[in-house]
Design goal:
Blueprint: H1 2-30, H2 34-41, H3 57-64, H4 66-90, H5 97-111, H6 124-134, H7 136-153, H8 156-175, H9 177-200
Length: 208
């Protein structure tokens, strides 16, 4: 009996180490303040003190212009994709949730970055990067819906909303309820960040 218990404990050690590693790397990747790095390069100052005071793509776009802010969009998406990708690569067979651990840690890092005084954004684009890894088929469907609405209405804001709504519905069909519920937990995190921004200042409750 003792031998069996010891074996089970030893088997669990690599999993615990892996979770800690993926979480730590994901958090550090998410903590890279890409928007402020781009703004500093453009000598636009700290995005947390201008515009809607949100260090994300949308504020960067308003302050720097769409072309100059493009690296912010790509970088914030890449943070989620890299962190979730790491979780997917090191996961043992059946441990699909490790990709969510990595992506979720990156979202936490983006929201409370250690490299930027723990004052970050809403993690929307970092979630998008995570979603591309944890549910690629659903992501393709969501992007297709986004593009269709954008081409029809010419409003990216509405297109993005439709894409976000379509993604979990598509994932429910493709990946099942458990993974979709896990995605819902990450989306709830974004909702909490928006609520925090709204309570702090209505002007700050914008994507990023």
């Amino acid at each position: 009996m003792r031998s069996g218990s010891s074996s089970a404990m030893l088997a669990a050690v690599p999993t615990v180490v892996t979770i800690l590693l993926v979480s730590a790397v994901g958090y550090l990747v998410g903590s890279v303040p890409i928007a402020n790095l781009v703004a500093a390069r453009r000598r636009a100052g700290d995005l947390r003190t201008v515009g809607d005071r949100n260090p994300g793509y949308w504020n960067a776009k308003e302050q720097l212009g769409a072309r100059s802010a493009l690296p912010v969009f790509v970088g914030d998406v890449a943070k989620g994709a890299v962190a979730a990708g790491l979780g997917a690569v090191v996961a043992a067979e059946g441990d699909w949730w490790l990709a969510y651990v990595g992506g979720g840690a990156a979202m936490v890092g983006h929201a409370w970055p250690v490299f930027a005084g723990f004052r970050g954004g809403r993690s929307v684009l970092t979630f998008v990067g995570t979603a591309l890894v944890v549910g690629p088929v659903a992501a393709v469907i969501g992007v297709a819906a986004l593009l269709a609405v954008w081409m029809t209405t010419r409003s990216f804001a509405w297109a993005a909303r439709v894409g976000i709504v379509v993604y979990p519905i598509a994932q429910l069909v493709v990946d099942g309820p458990v993974r979709t519920a896990t995605t819902g937990a990450l989306m709830t995190f974004i909702g909490v960040r928006f609520a925090q921004a709204a309570l702090a200042s209505p002007a700050e409750a914008t994507p990023g």
